[in-house]
User: Which sequence fits this backbone?
């Protein structure tokens, strides 16, 4: 294996060859034509010196309750005669942003429209076609939700497999041997929740009943990233102590049933990660100072994004999940003059208010991207140049829980793997194409992705460079 | 079996009938879904044939002569809930520790204890445990008085007698059983290897390690062979100490209980009863039982509630907490102060109010202040009787701008009667018509539910009792007209019984055996940390019978459960791949 100056696998070359292979597998003969010029992959700066400019960053940005409904979502949704404020009128490069995409225009985000979940919907137990749960799970895992528990009042539901952020963070082809302090960071802004359990307050999963609840408190995020004790001896002791903890656990493993053994093994795997982190010991970043808090969603997005950006810049992680609002959010947008929480506002058919809220959520997304754009390394490369942010929601629209026209935004350049400012329309297209696109853009070989009817080998070919 | 018991059983078993009849009347897919739907069996309607094929020991029999068989389920592995972790640390380390951040609990099937047996700990949650152990042991071992109070002697050299004695003692409290020699050796080695700069530091790290061990963080209750029945296991005496303590105190066993466990006294019904009675008299039992009812009644949902003060002048930021306190005082009154039929909580006109609740209800409450609650009797001709006419229920089951008969009816069906309401069909419009709603009350707009066959199956089940609460707005204020000035019709029905108002519902619920079997089922789930298995149907049936015999007194139910073989035995672990 070719190693770079730091003794790491040659990521740039590796990435290129993987992409070559995968293009060959997926696209047939036109391999060399489909490959972007090396220059484009590197960005215009092409700075090889610091070794970070070719390390892509992947993130999920999630907002609740889709977009305002229109005829594209279905006959019922078209009944009100409301216009489509989401889909840009023209497709291709340099499209003119729609009203709701306008806040993101400065960052030349690419957008895919026409996509929808294709997973099967078993009839028993009932309710599995519900837009919130199906749309959310497909958007994040390319699979349907676990059927068990749907008919219980607590809506005990969960994912069947890892969400895309965790799939990437644990994929050998993403970090290789060069694993940063955190494989991923999981954050959230609004703590309003529809139900206490499961997907209603988390969008990042490792598997069934294994969720990564978002860090909501800027102070906690700050502590996690920057508050590293100076006393390295104590950290070393803490790390070696975990060997004894794991030895203690081993006696227990053999006595457990299969399901509990899996739970315990995951816990032990986490201990390995914690141990590794303690052994890395010294602080990796300059301390940006303890953050303030804010009850305003956009201000809080800014605060959390600043912390994340500092962490990304100094290499603490390259994967994140950012939940602005949780699925089916009950967040009360009283700042926009909305009297009821958002979920009910959708169901009450208050289109104008849903329009206002969606615009506001896009403004928050824009603020997030502003921070990433403004954070540049010494060679002038911004985080957004290296980043692929998969922006999505739980379904097309929240009035009827319609799953057609699921919103998909691909923001950032992913080190040149994503073409900016493209609108690709795929009528009735498989939502899984967004995942295939993201995975290929990140250099992860992906002949196809998706499960239980959601499988696809296609990517968004106009957006993937 | 006495005749009285037989009568009770007739009543208990009868209750499923009207509900099932309703199902057949429903126009479309059944809404209430009897015992087959949920993974476990449904208390009142067990299929008795299950039991006849097993070799369990019949101790009772059904009215039709079929013996009851108490066939237990396999072990689960609960991780301590956040409360249990914090409480246990107070118990094994020291009281008054600093607050530490932990992964929040999840509550599938309503209970944190079920989340504790199903949810996998996240990486961040693991890190928080590591940091908490480090921080808390620093807090104690950094204070010469506190560490001496904990350890009881001064370690003079790493691994000396003081250290060894402490590790044995602390280990027993943390692991809820004596350490094995291998474990003791492991932690002793830590005290030596990491004794830098001194023996105290080695000891601190050993404690920090034990607090991260799965033997502390999880309740390891896996059983031992049952000498009375080779086909099943029984919980060990120490495991019973743990089960008793987490159920009754929501924390780890105290020394007295661990001493009892060491003599195997907790393998006997008598021993269990004596210790349970002792523990029920302790304030920790009150806190633990309140926590059970808070999860059962969903009181956590009051925490995030906000209302526009312009629309609801009586709303205040303290009102949700006042409402929660009111329910807690009622629970305390029924369970501890009066030891009364717990179903009465749904029918009583007696309650406890502070100043703002007295205003909300329009009652005189001499002595009430913002922080003082006083007992009051709500007027006999007033609109309120029972918990479902009080603030907590009414406000948590309402939207910001209007109440929700559907949510209120659903809560009654699911929480109070333990019936299952199916989610709406996938292809149905679940929205309340708003645009055509001009001049119509919410009730009239919801009438679509009753006329559309796709909705009627469930909504004819949920809405009619839900309409009984239409006299109360989104924060629980009594009203005769809605926000648009339209006159409220708050009549309704429950299972074919017409009711003029919620005050007629309350006394009905207070005498309804279904409420009793529902309490049994919820307690069983909470105590076991899982749903009931089909094989356990007779256990629930028996608990329900005995609860009725005991006049539905909740503390009696706890004693019955704790001493019941269904709580003391378990099935062998399922083989891998089975």
Assistant:
């Amino acid at each position: 294996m070719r190693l770079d100056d730091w003794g790491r696998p040659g990521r740039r070359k590796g990435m290129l060859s993987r992409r070559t292979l995968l293009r060959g597998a997926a696209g047939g003969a036109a391999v060399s034509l489909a490959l972007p010029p090396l220059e484009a992959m590197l960005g215009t700066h092409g700075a090889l010196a610091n070794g970070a400019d070719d390390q892509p960053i992947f993130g999920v940005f999630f907002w609740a309750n889709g977009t305002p409904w229109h005829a594209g979502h279905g006959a019922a949704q078209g009944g009100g005669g409301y216009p489509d404020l989401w889909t840009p009128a023209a497709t291709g490069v340099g499209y003119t942003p729609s009203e709701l995409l306008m806040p993101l225009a400065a960052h030349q985000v690419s957008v895919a429209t026409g996509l929808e979940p294709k997973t099967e919907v078993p009839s028993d137990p009932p309710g599995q076609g519900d837009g919130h749960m199906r749309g959310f799970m497909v958007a994040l895992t390319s699979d349907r939700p676990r059927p068990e528990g749907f008919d219980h009042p607590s809506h005990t539901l969960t994912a069947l497999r890892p969400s895309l952020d965790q799939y990437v963070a644990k994929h050998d082809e993403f970090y290789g041997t060069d694993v940063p302090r955190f494989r991923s960071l999981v954050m959230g802004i609004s703590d309003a929740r529809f139900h206490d359990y499961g997907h209603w307050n988390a969008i990042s999963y490792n598997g069934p009943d294994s969720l990564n609840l978002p860090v909501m408190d800027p102070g906690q995020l700050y502590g996690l990233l920057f508050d590293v004790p100076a006393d390295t001896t104590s950290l070393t002791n803490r790390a070696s102590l975990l060997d004894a903890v794991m030895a203690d656990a081993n006696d227990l493993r053999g006595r457990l049933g299969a399901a509990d053994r899996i739970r315990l093994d995951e816990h032990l795997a986490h201990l390995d990660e914690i141990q590794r982190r303690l052994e890395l010991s010294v602080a990796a970043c300059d301390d940006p100072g303890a953050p303030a808090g804010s009850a305003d969603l956009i201000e809080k997005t800014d605060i959390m994004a600043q912390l994340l950006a500092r962490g990304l810049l100094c290499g603490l992680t390259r994967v994140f999940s950012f939940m602005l609002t949780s699925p089916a959010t009950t967040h009360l947008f009283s700042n926009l003059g909305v009297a009821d929480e958002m979920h009910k506002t959708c169901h009450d058919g208050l289109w104008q208010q849903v329009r206002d809220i969606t615009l506001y959520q896009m403004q928050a997304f824009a603020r997030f991207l502003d921070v990433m754009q403004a954070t540049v390394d010494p060679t002038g490369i911004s985080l957004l140049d290296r980043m692929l942010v998969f922006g999505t929601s739980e379904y097309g629209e929240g009035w009827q829980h319609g799953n057609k026209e699921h919103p998909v935004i691909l923001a950032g350049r992913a080190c040149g793997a994503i073409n900016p400012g493209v609108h690709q329309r795929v009528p009735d297209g498989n939502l899984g194409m967004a995942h295939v696109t993201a995975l290929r853009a990140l250099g992860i070989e992906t002949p196809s992705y998706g499960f239980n009817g959601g499988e696809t080998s296609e990517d968004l070919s106009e957006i993937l460079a | 079996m006495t005749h009285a018991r037989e009568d009770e059983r007739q009543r208990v078993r009868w209750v499923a009938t009207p509900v099932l009849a309703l199902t057949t009347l429903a126009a479309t897919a059944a809404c209430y879904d009897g015992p087959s739907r949920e993974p476990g069996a449904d208390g009142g309607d067990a299929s008795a044939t299950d039991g006849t094929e097993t070799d369990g020991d019949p101790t009772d029999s059904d009215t039709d002569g079929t013996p009851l068989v108490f066939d237990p389920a396999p072990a689960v592995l609960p991780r301590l809930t956040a409360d249990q972790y914090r409480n246990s640390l107070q118990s094994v380390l020291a009281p008054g520790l600093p607050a530490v951040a932990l992964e929040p609990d999840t509550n599938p099937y309503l209970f944190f204890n079920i989340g504790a047996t199903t949810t996998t700990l996240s990486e961040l949650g693991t890190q928080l445990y590591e940091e908490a152990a480090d921080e808390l042991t620093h807090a104690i071992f950094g204070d010469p008085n506190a560490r001496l109070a904990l350890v009881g002697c001064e370690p003079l050299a790493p691994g000396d007698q003081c250290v060894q004695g402490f590790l044995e003692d602390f280990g027993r409290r943390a692991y809820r059983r004596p350490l094995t020699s291998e474990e003791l050796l492991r932690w002793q080695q830590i005290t030596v290897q990491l004794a830098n700069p001194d023996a105290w530091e080695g000891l601190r790290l050993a404690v920090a390690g034990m607090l991260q061990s799965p033997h502390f963080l999880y309740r390891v209750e896996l059983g031992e062979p049952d000498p009375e029945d080779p086909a099943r296991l029984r919980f060990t005496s120490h495991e019973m100490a743990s089960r008793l303590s987490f159920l009754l105190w929501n924390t780890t066993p105290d020394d007295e209980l661990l001493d009892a466990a060491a003599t195997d006294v907790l393998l006997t019904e008598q021993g269990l009863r004596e210790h349970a009675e002792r523990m029920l008299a302790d304030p920790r039992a009150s806190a633990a039982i309140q926590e059970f009812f808070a999860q059962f009644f969903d009181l956590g949902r009051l925490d995030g509630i906000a209302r526009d003060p312009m629309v609801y002048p009586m709303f205040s930021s303290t009102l949700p907490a006042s409402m929660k306190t009111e329910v807690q005082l009622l629970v305390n009154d029924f369970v501890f102060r009066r030891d009364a039929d717990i179903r009465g909580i749904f029918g009583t006109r007696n309650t406890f109010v502070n100043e703002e609740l007295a205003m909300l209800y329009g009652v005189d409450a001499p002595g009430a202040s913002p922080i003082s609650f006083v007992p009051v009797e709500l007027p006999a001709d007033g609109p309120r009787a029972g918990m479902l006419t009080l603030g907590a229920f009414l406000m948590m089951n309402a939207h910001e701008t209007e109440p929700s008969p559907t949510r209120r009816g659903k809560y009654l069906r699911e929480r109070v009667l333990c019936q299952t309401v199916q989610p709406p069909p996938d292809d149905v419009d679940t929205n309340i018509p708003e645009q055509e709603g001009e001049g119509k009350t919410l009730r009239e707009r919801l009438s679509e539910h009753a006329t559309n066959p796709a909705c009627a199956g469930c909504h004819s089940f949920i809405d009619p009792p839900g309409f009984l609460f239409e006299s109360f707005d989104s924060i629980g204020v009594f009203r005769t007209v809605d926000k648009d000035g339209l006159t409220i019709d708050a009549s309704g029905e429950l299972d074919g019984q017409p009711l003029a108002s919620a005050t007629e519902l309350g006394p009905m619920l207070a005498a309804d055996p279904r409420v009793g079997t529902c309490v049994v089922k919820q307690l069983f789930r909470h105590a076991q940390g899982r749903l009931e298995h089909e094989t356990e149907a007779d256990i629930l049936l028996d608990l329900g019978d005995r609860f009725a015999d005991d006049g539905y007194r909740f503390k009696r139910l706890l004693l019955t459960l704790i001493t019941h073989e269904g709580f003391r035995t378990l099935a062998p672990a399922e083989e891998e791949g089975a």
Observations:
- Confidence is low (pLDDT under 50) at residues 1-30, 32-59 of chain B.
- Residues 82-217 of chain B form one domain.
- Residues 123-141 of chain B form the longest helix (19 residues).
